[in-house]
Design brief:
By secondary structure, the protein is of the alpha/beta class. It has helices at about 30-45, 60-65, 80-90, 105-110, 110-120, 165-170, 185-195, 225-230, 280-290, 310, 325-330, 330-340, and strands at about 50-55, 75, 95-105, 125-130, 135, 140, 150, 155, 175-180, 200-205, 230, 235-240, 255-260, 265-270, 295-300. Strands 2-1-3-4-10-9-15-11 form an 8-stranded mixed beta sheet, sandwiched between helices. Helix 1 crosses helix 7 and helix 3 packs parallel to helix 5.
Length: about 350
Amino acid sequence: MAVQEPPVNVIGLTRQDYQGNPSTLCSGCGHNTISAAIVAAAYDIALRPTKVIKMSGIGCSSKTPAYFLNGAHGFNGLHGRMPSTATGALLANHTLKAIGVSGDGDTGSIGLGQFKHMVRRNVPMVYIIENNGVYGLTKGQFSATADLDQKLKYAGVNELPPIDLCLEALVADCGFVARSFAGDRKQVEALLKAALSHRGTAVIDIISPCVTFNDNDDSTKSFAWGRQHEEVVSEFSFLPNRTEITVDYPEGSAIDVDMPDGSVVRLRKLDNNYDPTDRYAAMRLVEDAHRKQEFITGLLYIDEERPSLEELERLPATPLARLDEATLRPSRETLAKLMSELM
């Protein structure tokens, strides 16, 4: 009997080619679901692993790049410093597709300044925040996104208001801002496909419950809360540019957003008063949801017009890392001219 070969995508890779190492995180951790969604999304859009760089900082979330795309490049930086290392790597080689995985502690506390400047510069990368409201790797202290008055067995009561990282991204003029829930794998995969085709920084804040320290039913970062309170702001589909895809949509208004690679994100508004291309509307939506203790998910804002860092810096087609010494080193005459201008 002939052995059936596993299916391959359009570049001839199997789903196994996108796998990583076995997870060492707690069983049931939402981070593992996100890693599986990254594997599925990368396989579906035929992302070549050797053209990907995986970036991370410190924390449970920052361990997860080991669990997907073993064939990709990777760099695990210091706590909160992932944005600067990613910026340097992508300036050196802008042909790489960057996937950064961070956590609410890594991004919202020690790394908040770096996060804001990365968004301000529009570094071309997918920035995934695996948000659980606690420092899971160091035994469950409150993070900057923890709910006000939240009670934890080993940490007491949180007396500080939370930081909303989607709102921080919107204020910094990020061109792709989304929120999702690890328990909604279909939505996570669709958002990842769209984010991987975005020209600049794409921030996806994914509520990813910590089953060990913060899965209490009254926590907005728990599985129970997510399942009971999730409200999807928009239904959408991602249409790759390599083949024609037909989709059966329910009744309602829809808009198509063209991506730089020729693919299309099709947004269907559930609320006719909400426009996902209106940044101020997105800010109001996030603020209202926070005040009402609502859990809004979906693509909150998209802007494909803002130039990325590589465009602003007018980087050459050949990556800086591949330019020879003669091209990189200015001549004596050029240096003399430069110095005279500074006199």
